[in-house]
Amino acid sequence: MDRAVPAFLLDAPPVLPADWSAGQPVPSPCISVCRMDPATGWCEGCLRSIDEIIAWSRQDEAGKLQVWARLPGRWQQQQEALFGPLPPSPGAS
Questions:
Q1: How many helices and strands (H and E) does the chain possess?
Q2: 13 in any annotated domain
Q3: End-to-end CA distance of the chain
Q4: What Pfam families does the record point to (predicted)?
């Protein structure tokens, strides 16, 4: 049986909002689509692990930024698992 592909996985990797700047609280990557993928252990909405989700409210800002930094790589892994290798980014050599 094929697995349904959530539409939110097709757009682009999660990144910090463009209007965020240092000195502001780091926003949560949660998009209120809370389903854990048993294959990866990541939430299908925000791509965080259950441990990252649980720790979020107690984590310092640097730790939250580290979580954000991991999300694009997870998105790429998820995309490649679903659709195969992604084409190179424009300008990549």
A1: 2, 0
A2: no
A3: 38
A4: DUF1289 (PF06945)
Q: Which helix (H) or strand (E) holds 59?
A: none
Query: Tokens in use for 43?
Result: 């939430």
Number of CB atoms found within 10 A of residue 67's CB: 20
Instruction: Say how far apart CA 79 and CA 56 lie, in whole Å.
Output: 25
User: How much is the pLDDT for 92?
Assistant: 61
Name the DSSP class of 89. Answer: P
pLDDT 10s digits, 56-91: 999 999 999 999 999 999 998 888 887 787 677 666
Range of the domain at 42: 29-83
- Structural contact between residues 41 and 49, judged by C-beta atoms closer than 8 angstroms: yes
The C-alpha atoms of residue 24 and residue 52 are separated, in whole angstroms, by: 20
Higher pLDDT residue, 44 or 91?
A: 44
